[in-house]
Amino acid sequence: MLPLPTWEKPKERQSMHLLTLIRTNYYLKIMARGLEKGMKRYLLRGIRYIVKPPAPETIDSLVGIEKILIIRPNFRLGNALISTPVIDAFRERFPSARIDYLATDKTFPLLQQRPIDHFYLLSRSAILRPWKCVTLLRRLRAQRYDLAVQVSGGSTSGFIVTQLIGARYSMGSRKGHQRWYSIEAEGKSSHAYDAIINLTHQLGVACHNRPLLQLTKQERSQAMTKIRQLTSLHSDHPSDTDFIAIFVGGHQNKRWPLAFWLMLIDAMEAHKIRYVVFLGPEEFRLLAPIEQRLKSSLYGSLCPPLPIRHFAAVLERAQLLVTPDSGPMHLAAALDVPTISLVRQQKSLAFVPRESYDTILWRPEINTVVEAIQANVDGQASTPPGQPTSVKYYPKQYVTPPPIAVHTYAR
Question: The pTM is what?
């Protein structure tokens, strides 16, 4: 890619600064999201008048499927990871087809090493420069796809792209009473991972029931170097690299307050459990107080924000991950790392990992979290990652029963 003209670079920096400000300010984020939803509503109204319902099809009635576009232009890491099994399922069903993927520049690294022929990336800067979206739509229409696959039934952006790129056939989850896709997945799913299974059911091939991520040998080697650097501060044995990962972050009301994390750090020290605290790029306000608390630590280290694949390779070596409902939670699921999910909201129950070695804690006290950590580490020998005991996928543990409700995946 050619460098931008020098007169454009300040504008790019200003745009990214504004977007960063919006992402890290709760009220600005709510305002921006309201404006975005309003614009999408107007677009949807127009689409209802322009687009005619397609003829119903089955996967076996499709003819001449040579070019497929999988559509998931979402900026959340977790949502991108949840979609990864779709790629492998379509590759198995259409082994000789060209399969492209519409993603975002933020989530693209998580999709590397998957069997995709070409990626199209949507940038956050398109929010401030909508003509970029128009240009992207034109490029996609020019490809003349045979099949467009809308991965998430709750994604308005993905729905708009699916309807406007002019593919011969389309596929997605049923949306309301009107038919929008040539092939429609019926039924609702109570968990995000099940929604992917439901979407791909008509392909007639097996589909993984959890996220997928493939790391390289070089990434794993770099991760071990980083882990030794972090753990050597509290160990006389360089080969001793066991640690508990604690991710401090999350999205809006799924986050836990700073005081909670500081108390958890104190409890880990009291129980002599070695741990590494990870911060996301949007949690920079928590860096100073956590760093201050860890100055006198005998068992804990702080890992600054890392590039996402580097972070994934480090996380893969953790004994387990303690986390709110967050992107790293799904990253751990993709890496078969046991999780302790700290749940604050009912809707999170539709997203938390649910293998036999995963634990869900509903608004727990600190001592409950520590007890769960100790129980998980002690029990890992009998239930190793990667060996689920059933296909029902019920949560392993609720400390306080959550409200009785039916949660429908709709991201």
Answer: 0.83
